[in-house]
Amino acid sequence: MPMNRRQFTQSLGAALGAGAALAPRLHAAPPAPPAPAAEARPILLDNNENPYGPSPAARAAITASEAIACRYADFTEPRMIERLAAFYQLPHNQIMLGCGSTEVLCCADRAFLAGGKSAIASRPTFEVVLTLAQAMQADPVTVPETADFRHDLPAMAAAVNANTGLVYVCNPNNPTGTIVTLAELRAFLDRVPARVPVLVDEAYYDFVDDPAYGTVAPWLSRYPNLIVARTFSKVYGMAGLRLGYALGSPGMIAALRRHKLPMNANQAALAAALACFNDRAHIADQRRRMFASRNWLYAELRRDRRRYIPSQGNFVMIDLATDVEPVVAAFRRRNILVGRKFPAMGNWLRITIGTPAEMRAFMAGLRAIVPARAA
Ligand SMILES: Cc1ncc(COP(=O)(O)O)c(C=O)c1O
After folding, report:
1. What pLDDT is recorded for position 37?
2. Which of 23, 88, 206, 227 has the fewest CB atoms within 10 Å, i.e. the most exposed one?
């Protein structure tokens, strides 16, 4: 039956009335999801990061870099290279920036291991060079460390042969925290043929206090096969921003550059790095904090009569005398992430030095999971 105008208006009103009741449910923002159970953030002692983060100047620069986030780093990248060039007294063609020093390590593999060449490294050491070598069907050759957990440089030099594409020296070494001295490195570099590139990874350079240690950066003109890798991830507290760099002869840097990602350095990282590079006061402060936590840890480990390797880095290897894997899992259940297993030292736990509160939580966890030996 056709409706007249009044009936139509009435039915519309009724429909709108019903609709009005529905309206809030149809148009309001969806209800908030139930609040997740309050879960404490994990304590991160697994990646050798710096828990204190970037310096105040670097933080301010990161915030200010918002204004140039829409621009490629065409102006800031050369400024960073200029800063490094002035500091190391090197021309620009002896420096390459990397997306972390990881990119430097990857470029070295790609540049020097093609065609089934071999990469020589200590065992154990930081794995990136060896892992990518394997992916490239190159041959990873690992040389056992010495009895005092250091690179066996004479044995590494002896392992060099016609098929060697790259030698990787991690100094200080991750995970052992040990160093090789400048004198030992000099003897080693004198032995390795000049056609074989040697990459010295100095990621933890700023944490060392052993006077026999030093950077090999001043030796680049003497050894044209030498590459030095450095990072802003450790003492500068910028692991998440991703910036590292390589120093080398023009030939080495040209070879690496062929394999780097174009525009690999981002504006925020460059701004922060320009603000904090070689900030001696900040570096001294970070060292002081790290040494305090590390010394506290040493004292607690000694009190428990646990064996550990005195470290020149922001991490320590602790002998658990038992397989480390279940221990890592048990720490995870306590919301504490600790270092992965290094197969060559399967009973040793690598622990990153965190804040004092984090170290106390770690020691409480350790005593619960692997009780101290009886006196
Ligand atoms: C010895 C060593 N080299 C290089 C890296 C990679 O650092 P990044 O890529 O953050 O510079 C690490 C990271 O832990 C490391 O331990």
Report:
1. 52
2. 23
